Structure prediction request, 248 residues.
Amino acid sequence: MTEKKQVGTIYMNDFQTKQEFVTVFTDSLANHQSMNLYFLNDHGFNIAQKDHDYASVLNRADYLLNDGIGIKLGAKLWGVTLEENLNGTDLIPLLLNECAENNWSIYLLGSTKENAQKSAQKLKEQHPKLTIAGTHSGYFSSSQEIVETINRSSADVLLVGMGMPLQEKFIDGNSDVLKPLARIAVGGFIDFASGTKPRAPKVMRQLNLEWLFRMALEPRRMWKRNVVGHAQFFMKVIGLKWRHEHRK
Prediction:
């Protein structure tokens, strides 16, 4: 596991390219090393400032990768340079390529039952050699029962898409009993993979403007998160940096 860098109250990795992490992922699974992998955007950072248990969960991650322009700019204020956006929606298909090539099976946990099943079908079309060990919606009454179901599937990789902070807390809280080697918090990936939720055009993604596309689709839900949330994030990051410098 690579050394993490401090950004405010959170410690994250600074892989410079997706391929750099893909190599780490492949080597870890080939050597039967387990990992909890999460992604940090400014929304997750904001949640962690109010939910200290969640902050601890993020800091316990084996790998915490940067997602979005907000984190890139905020990290720069702390002297951490991040080159490539390592958001899960773009990185996970690369990891699934490795799973297909190495015969590592995956389990999808999240979204609705229908979307999880659609996602499994489309991922098989995109990665014909990929083995889907099972799917389940993100709605269940017993964590113990769903963990047992996942373990019985003999999946090597678990994708959990239940939104922040539930997905990371589920992985962290069951880390000792989950048998899949890689446990990945994937946010809306299952919905995107199912085709029920569109992604921003590639040019907008390259310009780090996917948040603007999503806000145009869901203005009422995303306005506070993206506009107010961005402002809160930068105020918090700058404030934490000022206090950090003046404690020296």
Q: What stands out?
A: The mean pLDDT is 91. Residues 219-246 form the longest helix (28 residues). The chain is about 55% helix and 15% strand.
